[in-house]
Amino acid sequence: MLFVENPSLDPYFNIATEEYLLKHLDTEVVMLWRSNPSIIVGKHQNTLAEINLAFVRKHNIPVVRRLSGGGTVFHDPGNINFTFIRQTEKEKMVDFKAHTRPVIDFLQSMGVDASFQGKNDLRVQGLKISGNAEHVYKNKVLHHGTLLFDSNLDNLNEAIKAKEENFESKAVKSNRSVVANISSFLPVATSREEFTFKLKQFLAAYFTSAQHYTLASNDIRSIHRLVEEKYSQWHWNYGYSPVYAFKNSLSLNGRSLEAVISVKNGIFKEVSLKENTTELPREHPLIKALQGVSHHPDAIGQVLAHTNYLGYNHLPDKWDLLGLFF
User: Fold this and answer.
1) Which range of residues forms the domain containing residue 320?
2) Which residue from 256, 48, 42 is spatially nearest to 144, judged by alpha carbons?
3) Calpha distance 307→28 (Å, rounded)
4) CATH value at residue 287
5) Residues whose CB falls within 8 Å of the CB of residue 257, separated by 6 or more in sequence, listed in order
6) How many structural domains are present in the chain?
7) Could you tell me if 112 and 69 are in contact, meaning their C-beta atoms sit under 8 angstroms apart?
8) In what order do the strands lie in the sheet with 267-275?
9) Residue 234 phi/psi, 5° resolution?
């Protein structure tokens, strides 16, 4: 077993590192890591249905799809992530309680009365402090989870304030929970650095065979390649979403607008637009131009600009119209 050092705060690199370690190292792994503000969505989720896109764009928050299932989580430097890659018997691979046991034991050793609750949560006094997910690959299982230590909970709640009612699909939906920071439950004030150091010491003692490992230059090159080819790409982070239907309406300059769109692989397949309850004909330049376009603000913005639909090019805030599609 390797105890991997990963000082990176880049969410794309960190999520790619997990896949690299799972698929390219023939050993068990323990890794602690943190990321700059970012949203991490589950493999089988509809990304746009899980995030507050306006907030994400305003604050330039990366959105990354991970390998494992489950719900959406918010990362920032106040959140400490743990990754366990274990080799075990097939029937024992998916076992959230067993894989979170060392983390629960550590929290209790720190005076935090944490327990496993529900399908994959760690909670204290009913409040969620950790979400967990797993992914099976051949004879190994990747288990990872969050530990909200002193995260910005306002940003967390705002970033994942989604418009789920606008989407219809079979995608996995997140179970929204009231969250709390571990720091507020500690009987003795502890810094983030001290907490992380003690967690590392505890896990090193728990997994007695773990040997310290620093990512080598060839590891880092391979991980960056995975970032470039997959984890930084729109087609994975957004386009991989299951087939969905989207519906939205708004008012602009005295007109009521309604959009109904079917989307597959992140691409518009069918588009219906109404102005004041009158449906635009299929031959309308905007309807024709939107066919086959990515459900991406930049792509749709280019179409609206090209057709100058409802004076789009002269709007002080382009989102007043662009928001119809999100």
Assistant:
1) 244-325
2) 42
3) 55
4) 3.30.390.50
5) 249, 250, 251, 273, 274, 275, 321, 324
6) 2
7) no
8) 167-169, 244-252, 255-264, 267-275, 278-279
9) -60, -40
Amino acid at 74: F
**13 and 75 both lie in a single domain:** yes
Q: 10-residue block means of pLDDT along the chain (326 residues)?
A: 97 98 96 98 97 94 97 97 92 89 98 95 97 95 98 96 91 91 97 98 95 97 98 97 97 96 97 96 96 96 97 96 96
Give the closest residue to 237 by CA, choosing from 265, 271, 261, 260: 265
> Residue 164: what pLDDT?
85
Do 136 and 167 form a contact (C-beta atoms < 8 A)?
Answer: no
**Alpha-helical segments (H) within 110-213:** 153-159, 192-206
Query: Which alpha helices (H) appear in the chain, and where do they start and end?
Result: 11-24, 47-50, 53-58, 96-109, 153-159, 192-206, 217-226, 234-237, 285-290, 297-307, 319-322
- Tokens coding 75: 């990362």
Chain centre to alpha carbon of residue 19: 15
Question: How far apart, in whole angstroms, are the C-alpha atoms of residue 203 and residue 166?
Answer: 43
**Rounded distance between C-alpha atoms, residue 20 and residue 144, angstroms:** 14
Does the pTM exceed 0.70?
A: yes
Query: Do 282 and 259 lie in a common domain?
Result: yes
Report the alpha-carbon distance of residue 40 to residue 42 in Å, rounded.
7
- Quick one: which of 70, 59, 71, 66 has its CA closest to 33? 66
DSSP string, 267-309: EEEEEEEEETTEEPPTTSHHHHHHTT-BSSHHHHHHHHHHHTG
Alpha helical stretches, state H, 67-121:
96-109
